[in-house]
Amino acid sequence: MADLVRRDSQASDIRVFNGPDGYQYRWRPSNNASNDIVLQDQHGNIIAFYRPIRPQRYNLGDVYGELHFCRSAGAGVVMHPPLMDTVTVTAMLYRFVITFGL
Prior knowledge:
By secondary structure, this protein is an alpha+beta fold. It contains 1 helix and 6 strands. It has one domain (2-100). Helices cover 20% and strands 37% of the residues. The longest helix is centred in the last third of the chain and has 20 residues, at 81-100.
């Protein structure tokens, strides 16, 4: 799992991972007012983002954020199953390591 959230040499709050397609992707905080966390592809295109929300309680559990996929961004492959699964897992891992300063 540590390979999915490697520190980037640019900043301590940026994490990188190699996707199933062999390209490098990176999670980083955005500069907008809603405190989004964005996922960039190897060209710097934002292909997904995580937006924290006010906690909501549902029958299946509590929801603390929304993961959005940008379907047409970059090469348009973020919606394909191997990469989509990796994005979901790395989003959770990124939030964990940033929260606990790992």
